[in-house]
Each structure stands twice: as structure tokens, then as C-alpha cells.
């Protein structure tokens, strides 16, 4: 009598699916890590841009104060009725 080997085939199919599933999970994990790295790089670039913008504003204020500090300060003083 020939042996029925369907259980062996099912086991092989299950192993194959498990390997495919594992590969898909690993691919997804790698893709997710890549996206997180890109987001981190983007955030770092945005922070660097913000720091450069702040430095430019502070440099502008510093140069204005060097030229005429009294006029700069008086521009913030409210006059009667303002």
C-alpha cells in the first residue's frame, strides 16, 4: 500500500509560508527603519535650518545695537496714546 504523504506536503507548505512570512516581516521592518531614518534626517535638517534662521535674526539685532542701541530701544517705547 502506498503511504499517503499529504501531511508531509502540508508541513512543507507551512514551512514555506512561514519562511515567506518571515521574509515579508523582515522586509517591512527594514522599510520601516528606512522611513524612520529619513524622518530623523529631515528633522535634523529642519532643526539646523531653524538654528541658522535664529542666528541670522540675532546677528541682525546685534548689528543694529552696535550701530545705535538707544534708537533701537526707543523704538519699543510706547508714546502717549499708542
From TrEMBL:
NCBIfam families: pupylate_cterm
A Pfam family it matches: Pup
Pathway: Protein degradation; proteasomal Pup-dependent pathway
Protein's GO biological process: modification-dependent protein catabolic process; proteasomal protein catabolic process; protein pupylation
Protein name per UniProt: Prokaryotic ubiquitin-like protein Pup
UniProt-listed InterPro entries: Ubiquitin-like_Pup
Molecular functions per Gene Ontology: proteasome binding; protein tag activity
Protein family membership: Belongs to the prokaryotic ubiquitin-like protein family.
